[in-house]
Amino acid sequence: MQKLNEHELWLSIANNDLQAAKVLLQGKLYSTGIYHCQQVAEKSLKGYLAFKEQDILKIHDLVALAKQCIQLDQSFYSIVESAEELKPWSTRSRYPDDFVEVEKSELQKAIEQAEQIFLFIK
After folding, report:
1. Which of 38, 67, 91, 112 has CA atoms 20 to 30 A from the CA of 30?
2. pTM across the whole model
3. CA angle, corner 77, sides to 65 and 106, nearest 5?
């Protein structure tokens, strides 16, 4: 089996998170699924940065990562809004002190946003 480059590995893992979110939608596990949507965006952005041989900060802030990408390519402005909306889900719905019940429609929208970011970068 051929070894993937770092950026390809980031995108492969992002795709796994995207597929997981879709399965969790079908299983009505909306709060868990939305976390995976944030992960799709984060790993996709980090994959682009790896492709451009940039330092990858160990952060979960999608907006900060998108801004780092914008410095390399202005077309990343087109995904900033989706990044802003997905940003809170790195922690929300994962821990009791910040838990939020997620509705089906919220997860469906998050999947669309995550997929937009993933496909834009891919």
Report:
1. 67
2. 0.93
3. 75
Whether 14 is in a domain gets the answer yes
**60-77 mean pLDDT:** 97
What is the number of structural domains in the chain?
A: 1
- The DSSP result for 32-51, as a single string, is HHHHHHHHHHHHHHHHHHHH
pLDDT averaged over every residue in the chain = 94
Question: Cα(5)–Cα(19) distance, rounded to whole angstroms?
Answer: 21
**Full residue range of the structural domain in which residue 10 is found:** 6-121
Tokens 């429609």 belong to residue? 105
- Interatomic CA distance for residues 46 and 40, integer angstroms: 10
The answer to whether residue 100 sits within a structural domain is yes
Q: Percent helix, strand and coil across the chain, each rounded to 5?
A: 75, 0, 25
Taking each continuous run of H as one helix and of E as one strand, the counts in the chain are: 5, 0
